[in-house]
Structures are given as C-alpha cells and as structure tokens.
Amino acid sequence: MYLVLLGPPGAGKGTQAVKLAERLSITHVASGDLFRENIGRGTPLGRRAKAYVDQGALVPDDLTVAMVMERLHQPDCRDGALLDGFPRTMAQAQALDQELVGDGKRLAGVLYIKAPDQVLLTRLAGRLTCSNCQATYHQTFHPPRVAGRCDRCGGRVYQREDDTWETARRRLQVYFSQTMPLIEYYRHAGLLVEVNGDQGAESVQEELVVKVNALEAAPFSEAQDA
Ligand code: AP5
Ligand code: MG
Ligand code: ZN
C-alpha cells in the first residue's frame, strides 16, 4: 500500500508516520530525513541541499524527485511505502504518479493532517528530534523520559536547525504557496482523506488507523467517486 502524508510543517506527519508505518508494515520514507541524512554525511546531494533546508526553502524538484525515486526503488519499498513530506509541489506529485503508474502501482490515499497555524509554530519551536531514529519529541508536550535521550532507541535528541521561530514561519509560507495546491489536486483525484491534527497525538493516530482501514476496505472505484 502506497500512502502520502500531506500537511503543513508541524502538523505531526513525522510523529504519526513512525507509528503508522510500523502498524501497516510499510516503509516510512521522509524526504526531510533523507536530506538531513545526506547533509550529515556531507554527500554531494547533501552539499547541494543544505542551503535550501537551512533557509526553509524547498530543494529543487529535480534533486528531490531523483532522491525519493531512488529510495522507492529499494527492495523494502516494493510492496508499499508511507511517504512523509513528499510530494510538496505539483511537479513532484506528477512525477510520483508517473513513476507509480510505470511500475504498475497506484496511491491508495493521501492523508491530509490539518492544524491551525499558531499550533504549528508552537510545536515546531519546541520540537526535539532523535538523531538516530528520527522520532520526535516536544520540550513541553512530549519530553523524552530521560532528558536528551530518545525513548525508543536511546539516541541523542537535538533541535533541528530549521526549527527557529523565523525559519518555521518561512517554511509555513512556502507550504501555503507551493504545497497547498496539492490538496485540490488529490481531492480531485478522489484520494484525499482529511485528518484532524489538532488533538492529542494518540487520537490523531487512531483517526488515521480508522481512515486507512476504510481505504483498504473500499474498492478503488469507490475511493475515486468519494
Ligand atoms: P521536513 O523535514 O519534511 O519538514 P516539514 O515538512 O517542515 O515538516 P516537519 O517535519 O517540520 O513537520 P511534521 O509534520 O513532520 O511535524 P512533527 O511530527 O515533527 O522538511 C525539511 C526541509 O527539507 C524543507 O524545509 C525543505 O528544505 C526540504 N524538503 C523536504 N522535503 C522536500 C520536498 N518534497 N521538496 C523540496 N524540499 C523538501 O511534529 C512537530 C512537533 O509537534 C514535534 O515536537 C511533535 O512532538 C509535536 N506534535 C506532533 N503531533 C502533536 C500533537 N498531536 N499534539 C501535540 N504535539 C504534537
Ligand atoms: Mg517531519
Ligand atoms: Zn531514537
């Protein structure tokens, strides 16, 4: 099953994806994590992406699409993937469609997590991220049990460089101008499923599970008509 998690920065895509992917036994593919990993390793891709990521701007489509497609062609994505943070532009969405169709596959749904802007900014400014498994925490809402250490893997938790108030605002503006058009694109395709991200993380997960189960149960033609 191939699913996309769509939503503004701070909506909870990463938080939800880690658990949902485990539950569905599909691979979590997060474009932001892939960029940060490349930046951390100092690869040629990481060196090209760094300035964009640091400023909260989108990395150009050609680099992003090539990176994500390469990841999707690895064996652990053969039967499905949960895409988090990709696609984010119309060009990326079209590239994904083409790629899946070319491989005889299709998207089962696009899970759109919504939350008010003020909630997003407060979440981002307090976020902590595990340097090893990418699990997310929050200084106030969800601190790690042992300060500075990930509950899941014991890795070091850190604050992302793009999680300053100013860069978070910039990322939100980029989302409004470049990513929001995808909502209508996927609604029109009959794939959009809306999820309330402005509730406790466990309630968001429950809503996601119910809605994904409904997608699995519904024949494709019905989802198209919805
Ligand atoms: P990326 O890493 O994808 O960042 P983003 O989209 O800005 O999204 P976030 O990771 O900030 O938000 P999230 O929804 O995952 O929130 P989270 O679950 O962590 O991208 C980073 C950069 O990479 C981009 O700016 C760009 O430069 C580049 N990039 C990536 N993909 C690209 C693409 N496709 N094209 C071009 N460039 C690309 O939650 C946030 C916080 O809130 C956490 O602290 C969490 O604990 C807390 N929280 C979550 N849910 C709840 C809840 N229900 N209640 C209370 N707190 C909660
Ligand atoms: Mg994320
Ligand atoms: Zn961890």
What does this structure look like?
With 226 residues, the chain is α/β, with parallel strands linked by helices. It has a single domain, classed as Rossmann fold (3-Layer(aba) Sandwich). Helices cover 51% and strands 15% of the residues. The protein contains 10 helices and 8 strands. Strands 2-3-1-4-8 form a 5-stranded parallel beta sheet, sandwiched between helices. A 3-stranded antiparallel beta sheet has the order 6-5-7. α1 (13-24) packs across α9 (201-217), α2 crosses α3 and α4 (61-72) packs parallel to α5 (90-102). The chain is globular. Mean pLDDT is 94; it is low at 221-226. It binds BIS(adenosine)-5'-pentaphosphate (AP5), magnesium ion and zinc ion. Residues 130, 132-133, 135, 150, 152-153, 155 line the site of zinc ion (ZN).
Distance between the termini: 19 Å
> What is the CATH homologous superfamily assignment?
P-loop containing nucleotide triphosphate hydrolases
Mean pLDDT across the residues is 94
Tell me about the largest β-sheet.
Answer: 5 strands, parallel
CATH fold node name: Rossmann fold
Q: What share of the residues does DSSP label as strand, in percent?
A: 15-25%
Structure summary, number of beta strands: 8
Q: Which residues sit in consecutive blocks of at least 5 with pLDDT less than 50? A: 221-226
- Percent helix, as a range, is 40-55%
From N to C, what is the helix and strand string?
EHEHHHEHEHEEEHHEHH
| Outline | globular
- Tell me the Rg in angstroms: 17 Å
Number of structurally distinct domains: 1
The DSSP helix count reads 10
